[in-house]
Write a structure and sequence with these properties.
By secondary structure, this protein is of the alpha/beta class. The chain folds into three domains: 191 residues, Rossmann fold (3-Layer(aba) Sandwich); 60 residues, SH3 type barrels, CATH 2.30.30; 83 residues, Translation factors (Elongation Factor Tu (Ef-tu), domain 3). The protein is built from nine helices and 17 strands. The strands form four sheets. The chain has a six-stranded antiparallel beta barrel with strand order 12-15-14-13-16-17. Strands 3-2-1-4-7 form a five-stranded parallel beta sheet, with helices on both faces. Helix 3 packs antiparallel against helix 4. About 2% of the residues have low confidence.
Length: 368
Amino acid sequence: MSRKGKVLVAMSGGIDSTVAALMLHHEGYEVVGITMKTWDYATSGTSSKETGCCNIDSFNDARQAAVHHGFPHFILDIREEFGDFVVENFIEEYIAGRTPNPCVMCNTHIKWRALLKRANALDCEFIATGHYAEVRKHSNDRFVISKGLDETKDQSYVLWGLQQDLLGRTMLPLGGYRKSAIRQMAIDLGYPELAKKSESYEICFVPDNDYRGFLKRNVNGLEEKVNGGWFVDKTGKKLGQHKGYPFYTIGQRKGLEIAMGRPIYVTAIDPETNTVVLGDEFDLEQNDMQIVKMNWIKYHGIEDGMEAITKIRYKDKGAISHLYNSDQGIRARFFENVKGIAPGQSAVFYEGNDVIGGGIIQRGELVL
């Protein structure tokens, strides 16, 4: 066994995870590659080809890289685990009128736990992925996730749900590099085709990016149950019929198929009445929100009034807020109004580059 230790590396076949595995291999770690199959498109009803982590070509790319560099590689079928939780949660959240983030749910409840379970079985001390973030041990002995060096690729937001036992075993080799450097490494390592590979930002089980079609195919009778609801304004006045509340998200402007003579946005969704509230852009502004299902990372918790930068979506730059403990979880109060707080999405709190913790947005409101 290597003196540096044995590490199980999640390899999707893409550039990031491949370079991560090869970096650790060349640094002297005993690497074991593993590729996880999460979804079976043959049974999903979509006509699209498999993409991303479930593409058979990607499986082969991952295995060839491992074989070429002399370390073992396994394919792990977690379709049942993934589907039972991530996909069902995705469907349930939309049916509840919320906007889920399946990548967060997968990382939090499926991917890391599946990796740790197999790492233990293979006597691996560490697990590693190609995420752009960093993990370190803080002076308070807690393991902390920090933003990656390349803020345009930073993925710390989707890792807020990882608990301490997982973080203590996690290595993220790409956190200190920019994407351009990783592309050059792929070329230098003899994989120029990976450097040219286009990146997918799709949900892995919705390869055509048509989540509405996915819901229709996977929820029996959904269209009949929700068709014919009303678009209303904030006073409740009916503006026209919509195609069903699960097919809309907070902040949506395009695809509403209703003419109002000005740009109009989805500002609220009420599943009980099958109504979708439309309003102007300023109607999306809120400055207070309730967050539930918290996971603390940097600290065990927070004192009332703690200042943090809070992100309400993956590409959000974040806004200054004060955090307060509540009976249900945490309330975040922003210094200035923010737009598009969407129940079901993740709220992640930062202190500098460090993730303090995160949770699921339950609701937002405007406090005057």
